Amino acid sequence: MFIYKNRQEDNSKIYYQLNKKYTSISLVRLLVAIAILLLIFCFFKSKNFLFIALGIAAMLVFFLLMKMHSKIAEKRKFIKELITINANELAYLNHEGIPFDQGTDYITLKHFYAHDLDIFGTNSLFHNLNRTATYIGKHTLAQLLLNPLKHSAINRNQAAVQELHTKLDFRHTILAFATLMKDNSNNYQELLDWAEIKPQKLTKTLQITSWITPLLFILFVIMYLDTKNALYNYLATLVFLTNLGLLLSQFHKIKQDLFKSNKIIETLNQYAHIFQIIENESFKSDKLLEMKQQLYHNAQPASVHIKKLNVLIANIQSIQNGFAALLFNGIFLYHIHVLKSLLHWKSENSIQISTWLNIVGEVEALNSLANFSYNNPEFVFPTLNNNFHLDFENLGHPLISKHKRVCNNIRFNKHDFVVLSGSNMSGKSTFLRTLGINMILGGIGSAICSSQATIHPMPVLVSMRQTDSLHDSTSYFFAEISRLKFIINTLQSQTCFVLLDELLKGTNSDDKQFGTIEIIKKIFTLKAMGSIATHDLEVCVSSNYLPHAIINKCFEVEIVNNDLFFDYKLKEGVCKNKSATFLMKKMEII
Fold first, then answer.
1. CA separation for the pair 240, 333 (Å, rounded)
2. Which residues, at least 6 apart from 173, have a Cβ–Cβ distance to it below 8 Å?
């Protein structure tokens, strides 16, 4: 926390100094502008050309000051964003709110754990993790949380996240520039659409002509100057008009490319800042090195290619200068050559744009995981294994404050299934979510809330929080049965980590009890590991049928000084104490 406060204070001092410079240059610019007007006045009054010379010098100073002013303004915006970033982290760590995007666009009830484990929405896992500011960054992080990785990819992500953990300047610089972009899905899609449209090449005839006619014009002008023969003057004029005709034939294409390019070049320029930061950073982990290498195309970095495009766009924009456009195109077919270069740039580089943007998304997502690790230095990166073994020491819910968090040890071997009993409010559902969220985090290469852990990465399937749907004419019970059907079908082909909470709530107690026991038996015969939480102590008897696989654990409640006391510590065996009747009596309900 102190590092964020120190950085905020340091950047505030820099911002103050920049403000002073900004104000001083503004004042000097005003004085120079007044001086220019006075020099012009003095010239007209005295006709002394010394005032013109001094005026030109003053104008050069004025333009230099404008450039300095612009640079300071940009730097001031950047520093202000760094101040905000550190202030946001302080607010987050002080539990004053979560000033980051919640990922509500990705909320879905149909995913097999996203809704149950609160992956998106207010106070969700995404809400806490997210330190992205571009659309592709947010989308990449969301997809990562929805689709955990394979074993080798997790190792690569872990190494990248551990390296980025130490690169606070790099992470904050990326976030600051990304935030200043004010990117959105429309900007991103327009950029992709522009890149995906294949450029129409100029015809071979026009390409050859664009070199021949300017040479002919120059030749005829030289011949006329040498011989004073009117024929060469006529021919030069004819070639000049022919060149303008050729330009007119391509004017629609130039106008179309100019319009499309103008819309995307600003977005590309903003991305280019981030490309350059990544290009200039030194990395050691394989994934980061590979991503950095992907920003190079034809032996040049993406930022250089974007600068070249900037020049081409600026050159083609000069067609809007009427007199200069007529002169340069009549003689050199200037904008035909610029158009040819722009089309060539696009044919050579546009296919790379999607890759470059994906790199930004990947880096932002990894930065988010690195920030999570940095803010929680007590969290560990789990060791991976291939023998269906899960072992967590001091496992806690990563989104619960460490001052309130209660941690537990738990271990699973292949086909182990824990039946978790306990009264209401004893912590069963929270513990299931603790298992699920940490498995998801471990499956994407993130640190997890544990002091030591080893995991076998596997799909996580959850049935905890089904909802009815008027839109889909779906009852709660049918939604739950549909989820269980999906879980059973998935287990037919692969081993999964399954979390179930109070099954079959929508039916009578006998049916619920029998159905739950049968589901546990069914799941055990398939490829499954995991846990089920239940209030029904009869369900715990299922361990009698499968004594080598079903493990009973519980959360107990105690009555201390005529009040309920929950310690949220996981214990062996079946829950013995009950709280519902005691609580209703205490509240004088019964």
1. 9
2. 82, 277
Residue with tokens 């590092």: 3
Q: How many CB atoms lie within 10 A of CB 19?
A: 14
Element (H, E) at 81: helix 49-93
Cβ–Cβ under 8 Å, residues 388 and 455: no
DSSP string, 226-266: HH--HHHHHHHHHHHHHHHHHHHHTHHHHHHHHHHHHHHHH
C-alpha 512/C-alpha 531 separation (Å) is: 17
Closest C-alpha among 257, 252, 215, 221 to residue 236: 221
State the amino acid at position 200 in one-letter form. Q
Residue 408's nearest CA partner among 453, 447, 459, 441 is 453
Residue pair 109/115 in contact (Cβ under 8 Å)? The answer is: yes
Give the pTM.
0.89
How many other C-beta atoms are found inside a 10 Å radius of the C-beta of residue 429? Answer: 19
Helix, strand, coil distribution of the chain in percent, nearest 5: 60, 10, 25
As a residue count, the chain comes to 590
Residue-wise pLDDT for 143-188, tens only, equals 999 999 999 999 999 999 999 999 999 999 999 999 999 999 998 9
Tens digits of per-residue pLDDT, 277-308? Answer: 999 999 999 999 999 999 999 999 999 999 99
Do 171 and 131 form a contact (C-beta atoms < 8 A)? yes
Residue 94 has pLDDT above 70, yes or no: yes
Query: Worst-scoring range by mean pLDDT, 22-36, 217-231, 364-378, 503-517?
Result: 503-517
SS3 557: strand
- With tokens 């079903």, the residue in question is 550
Following DSSP, what letter does each residue of 8-30 receive, concatenated? Answer: HHHHHHHHHHHHHHHHHHHHHHH
Give the per-residue pLDDT at 508.
58
Rounded Cα distance between 422 and 434, Å, is 16
**302-308: long-range pairs with CB below 8 Å, 24+:** 302/272, 302/275, 302/352, 302/356, 303/272, 303/275, 303/276, 303/279, 305/345, 305/349, 305/352, 306/268, 306/269, 306/271, 306/272, 306/275, 307/272, 308/345
Distances (CA, A) of 385 to 14, 388, 453: 49, 7, 11
